[in-house]
Write a sequence for this structure.
């Protein structure tokens, strides 16, 4: 019988903006506690995309496994988040697959084709709306997060659907969570304009979807997350996105003089993110923070 001593890995030192390649949970466990002021992210949606990379989230056999995986990741995020920090999560819903195990080609959206798709969850029926956003919100609430707001992202240019037995889906959710009862939220910078006046931001945000400048198939628009980043941080503070994708959070951070940590499993998306962030740097004329080169 052999005996081996396993030493814990040292925590990473974060001094500036950085992108980590790897799965979210593994990287998060290496980050120091109470490091970031704000988390803005959009995890992969369940049963909607196949990113064709080992270890991806979103193709779990059951909704429960999907939710549990996200809860584990967000639990580690809670440790990394400062005590007065906030978490903003963009998440969409899905319908049951009818146990087809695949999804046909969509002429209007080629990325929707899937050769592998989880079966209809136990207890649900064919054509049921699953209710994933609220399942996740309640799971995170049960895990100790303060659920502070459900924000409706009204997609004013939503993709048409050929359905004839329900309304066309034209919204997603953004949930605002906090780690503590009292937290940082700059309501003044988050105000929205109504003509020549400003008012406290409402919980319905009418924002167009935007085509990604790269081949990322599920990037959220920068205008969607700007209010989250501006309300949740001050200049120079650190923001985390554990599902970095093509780098939208990094782009907005660059524009508004924030630092960021991005975690991404897919190396192709990291290449996209670096290009997008560098393109934003070219547009920013005055820099008060010396950003590192990737």
């Amino acid at each position: 019988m052999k005996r081996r001593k396993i030493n814990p890995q040292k925590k990473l030192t974060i001094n500036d903006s950085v992108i980590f390649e790897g799965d979210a949970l593994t990287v998060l466990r290496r980050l120091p506690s109470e490091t970031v002021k704000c988390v803005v992210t959009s995890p992969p949606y369940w049963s909607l995309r196949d990113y064709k990379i080992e270890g991806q989230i979103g193709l779990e056999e059951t909704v429960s496994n999907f939710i549990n995986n996200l809860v584990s990741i967000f639990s580690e995020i809670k440790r990394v988040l400062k005590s007065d920090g906030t978490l903003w999560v963009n998440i969409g819903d899905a319908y049951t697959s009818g146990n087809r195990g695949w999804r046909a080609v969509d002429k209007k959206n080629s990325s929707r084709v899937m050769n592998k798709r989880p079966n209809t969850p136990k207890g649900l029926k064919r054509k049921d709306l699953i209710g994933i956003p609220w399942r996740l919100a309640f799971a995170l609430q049960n895990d100790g997060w303060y659920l502070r707001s459900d924000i409706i992202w009204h997609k004013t240019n939503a993709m048409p659907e050929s359905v004839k037995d329900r309304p066309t889906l034209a919204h997603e959710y953004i949930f605002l969570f906090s780690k503590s009862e009292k937290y940082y939220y700059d309501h003044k910078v988050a105000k929205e304009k109504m003509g020549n006046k400003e008012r406290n931001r409402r919980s319905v945000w009418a924002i167009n979807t935007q085509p990604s400048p790269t081949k990322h198939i599920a990037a959220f628009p920068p205008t969607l997350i700007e209010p989250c980043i501006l309300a949740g941080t001050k200049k120079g503070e650190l923001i985390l996105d554990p599902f970095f994708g093509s780098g939208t959070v990094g782009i907005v951070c660059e524009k508004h003089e924030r630092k960021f940590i991005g975690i991404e499993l897919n190396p192709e998306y990291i290449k996209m993110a670096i290009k997008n962030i560098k393109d934003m740097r070219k547009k920013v004329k005055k820099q008060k923070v010396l950003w590192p080169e990737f």
The first helix runs from residue 24 to 28. The chain has six helices and ten strands. The longest strand covers residues 81-91.
